[in-house]
Amino acid sequence: MDHQLSLAPGDEADLEKGQVGNLVNADLAFGPESTPTLRAGASTFLAPVEGTPNKARCTAALSSRHDTSEIVSQVERSWVCVSTVEGKVAGVRIIKAPGVGSAKLVIAYVIWP
Q: How many domains in the chain?
């Protein structure tokens, strides 16, 4: 994995810049709902994929699916492709879901140009 981020409930993430917080051009967000949810940014989409993705697989998945959210427990230990604000494609994997002792969501990701 190229990058890793830790998000608290309500945090947004810019994958290219590796920034977390309240962002203008967020690629995804960790929703504040009681059921932990990964949310797409305002102009981005999510698409879960089976197995380890590459740019071609993610591009294909994103051309057929335009999910705006994923329940963390349903995509934990699998990959979610993300179309970024900057027009790139990313593969995101949940490393650690929120639970006892930590409300944070830890993700690892790779971005393809």
A: 1
On whether the CB atoms of residues 60 and 66 are closer than 8 A, the answer is: no
Structural domain boundaries enclosing 38: 3-112
Taking only the tens place, the pLDDT of each residue in 35-82 is: 899 999 999 999 999 999 999 999 999 999 999 999 999 998 899 999
Residue 26 has pLDDT above 90, yes or no: yes
Q: Which bin fits 64, alpha (ψ -120 to 50), beta or left (φ > 0)?
A: alpha
Rounded CA-CA distance 42/3 in Å is 22
What pLDDT shows up at residue 34? 86
Name the 3-class secondary structure at 53: coil
